[in-house]
Design brief:
The chain is α+β, with helices and mostly antiparallel strands. It has 15 helices and 26 strands. The strands form 5 sheets. Strands 20-21-22-23-26-24-25 form a 7-stranded antiparallel β-sheet. A 6-stranded mixed β-sheet has the order 1-10-9-3-7-6, with no helix packed on it.
Length: 686
């Protein structure tokens, strides 16, 4: 990968023969774990302005209808978060000269609070081509990381690194997008974080020419573009567009279909009647039958629902185009033909992108030798990728099996992994929150979800803590587990996979990203981090993790204490500055009126902890939470404790199920009620 400095540019074509589609990644880390930013992409013409408000892609408008741009969302890495964007350069409209990639912060945060700001561009196979690191961030609330721009018949990348103290609003205005600042101010005055941007439409002067006069970021003086004169764009009527405030529905240019969470009342005579399903599963008897059925069901829905197929394959470098899928295909391999579980083919502009699919269900592991054979076949036949699909969850987005890559081959084949939990997450995001093209597609996705959730489908996601779980847990109970026992590291890896799956399921329910928090600097070795966590597990018998819901400052801490058999979930809530302590305590108790009675509430004071008690006891006497001796009230710690299951698998008493239920109960019963507290605290701090 080539490293370049601020202001430099490089040709993507010179770096790769397969740069027709690229994946742009923005990454950062935060020692506190609370740092975050939102990615946005602007398509601008030769005048440096967006052609219309439809050329602005952000949190509530994540994908272009033509497939040229798609925000793939955040992915946890070994030392922070990474936000990825799929850009199909062959699909970018002719009138677009530059693709500007930026990010913005919210709630009073600044980019100087984040570490290791970085942008990378990878080709379709996932091979990194060019990287650019930003070292001078300070008070900026929005940043242009870089841009892709046309130069004749090729595309080039420029490292920009320009910051804005005026946030996303200032950045958007520079590119010809009018922002309703009054709405933003009103939101902040009402106690919001002011992170939303109400896009009114194109900023136009009376003659139809974009009104914003700020000069856009241009190339270095050594390579100044000379755009050909272009006719003035047609006037665009101001369009009311929902703000970029989290929790609202996605902003779309055409009506999309979503399904209600609550099903219509049943016409069945009694509860024993079961609705007819498009993909029945009760007849499945063997793992082979489950694999064949699951592969066919998934690939057929991917081909029939373009939004869904595109969502799953864009992250693997596939272009936007006509998709066809096949199962049980026979391919030559020496004396014995091989039969991968499936093949995906995408056609665009006469070119084919092809991937082999290897599927496992019911917790069965992938076999490295089998995947290696498919990698060899794909390389010989010119296929772009091999996709493995199983219940397991990959760490840091890496493949689950090790394969040998023949460096002598000119054609590169990428290996990707997809979990059944991710498949279910993406289907749920589309039919519950973001929408699809028509009601038939929404129904197909709903049937797919029902299939995946059926107990006999074998597609339930990560559901086994592995062979090391029982001996490690027994060693902790008996206090015989050695600190250098390699099995403890295996348990820590399984714990990380479980937490990532919990985040996927919770994010699908909420329609927002949920990510594990890593409180380490970029460059830290993930294996060293897991080794340290394994040593701590041996000492105190606890597995710990933190997760954060996108758009909130709350960090949910999850602790599984293997010695006591308890799962604890907790969150710290800051107290609004300047508020009277008794008023703050009473307001918190009112907000938690529907929270579980066994919720533990602890007062946080400067230099330590204050009074504590269960919500059931505190409701009639909230004053019991007031700090003693006049200590300053800084916040509250809210905790729920749940018994831990013992089994490894997916039984009702299973450990995995107990952790998943604990997080779900805590979020729905506690965290969901705390938005007003967060808003007031953030508003006062801002």
């Amino acid at each position: 990968m080539q490293e370049i400095s601020k202001g430099a540019n490089v040709s993507l074509t010179a770096l790769s023969e397969d740069a027709g589609a690229v994946v742009v990644s923005l990454s950062w880390s935060s020692v506190s774990g609370a740092g975050d930013a939102d990615v946005s992409v602007l398509l601008v013409d030769g005048d440096g302005k967006v052609r219309s408000e439809n050329d602005f892609y952000f949190y509530n408008n994540p994908a272009a209808a033509d497939g040229s741009v798609q925000l793939l969302g955040k992915t946890p890495t070994g030392s922070g978060d990474e936000d990825r964007i799929s850009v199909d350069l062959t699909a970018v409209p002719e009138g677009v000269e530059r693709i500007v990639v930026a990010a913005s912060q919210y709630g009073g945060a600044r980019f100087g609070d984040l570490d290791d700001l970085r942008m990378t561009v990878a080709d379709r196979s996932g091979e990194p081509l060019v990287g650019f690191s930003i070292h001078d961030a300070s008070v900026e609330t929005a940043f242009i990381f870089g841009e892709l721009y046309r130069r004749g018949q090729e595309w080039k990348f420029r490292a920009v690194g320009q910051g804005y103290e005026t946030g996303l609003a200032g950045l958007a205005t520079d590119f010809g997008i009018a922002v309703n600042e009054e709405a933003e101010e009103a939101e902040a005055d009402a106690g919001g974080t002011g992170d939303g941007v109400d896009v009114v439409g194109m900023a136009k002067a009376p003659d139809g020419v974009p009104a914003a006069e700020t000069e856009p970021v241009g190339p270095p003086a050594t390579e100044s573009p000379a755009p050909a004169p272009a006719p003035a764009p047609a006037p665009v009527e101001p369009v009311a567009v929902p703000a970029q405030t989290r929790g609202r529905g996605p902003r779309t240019t055409k009506k999309k279909v979503t399904l209600p969470k609550v099903a219509k009342s049943s016409l069945a005579e009694n509860d024993s009647w079961r609705p007819a399903r498009l993909f029945p599963v009760p007849t499945l008897k063997s793992d082979k039958e489950r694999e064949v059925r699951a592969t066919s069901v998934l690939l057929s829905v991917m081909a029939q629902v373009p939004e869904f197929g595109r969502r799953l394959t864009a992250a693997f470098g596939a272009p936007a185009g006509r998709m066809q899928t096949f199962t049980e295909v026979s391919l030559p391999h020496g004396d014995t033909p091989r039969r991968p579980d499936g093949v995906i083919r995408v056609e665009r502009a006469g070119k084919l992108w092809t991937a082999l699919v290897e599927t496992k269900t019911n917790g069965n592991p992938l076999r490295p030798e089998q995947v290696q054979q498919y990698m060899d076949i794909a390389a010989r036949r010119g296929y772009e990728a091999v996709i493995t699909l199983s219940n397991d969850v990959a760490l840091e987005g890496a493949a689950l099996v090790d394969v040998k890559i023949d460096g002598r081959r000119k054609h590169k084949v990428s290996l990707w992994h997809l979990s059944w939990a991710e498949v279910a997450h993406q289907a749920q995001m589309l039919i519950r929150h973001e929408g699809v093209g028509n009601a038939a597609h929404a129904w197909l996705l709903q049937e797919l979800l029902e299939y995946l959730r059926h107990e006999q489908s074998g597609c339930h996601g990560f559901q086994n803590m592995g062979a090391a779980w029982v001996p490690v847990r027994k060693g902790i109970e008996d206090e015989t587990l050695a600190c250098d026992d390699a099995r403890a590291v295996e348990v820590v890896e399984s714990w990380e996979r479980l937490i990532r799956q919990v985040c996927l399921r919770l994010g699908g329910e909420l329609g927002q990203k949920a990510l594990p928090v890593q409180r380490v600097r970029r460059g830290s070795d993930p294996q060293a981090r897991r080794t340290a966590a394994a040593q701590q597990l041996c000492l105190d018998g606890r597995l710990t993790a933190e997760l954060r819901i996108d758009g909130t400052s709350s960090v949910i801490a999850v602790t599984a204490d293997l010695r006591t058999g308890k799962v604890r979930t907790c969150v710290d809530v800051p107290a609004p500055e300047g508020s009277y302590p008794l008023t703050t305590v009473k307001r918190l108790v009112r907000l938690l009126a529907e929270a579980p009675a066994d919720l533990h509430v602890e007062t946080l004071v400067e230099g330590g902890n204050g009074p504590r008690g269960t919500l059931e006891r505190l409701r009639p006497e909230p004053g019991d939470l007031l700090p003693k001796g006049g200590a300053a009230l800084t916040g509250f710690r809210l905790s729920l404790i749940k018994g831990m299951g013992n089994a490894r698998g997916n039984t009702e008493s299973g450990f995995i199920r107990s952790v998943d239920e604990a997080v779900d109960r805590f979020y729905q019963g506690v965290v969901a009620h705390l938005a007003p507290v967060e808003a007031r605290a953030a508003g006062r701090r801002g």
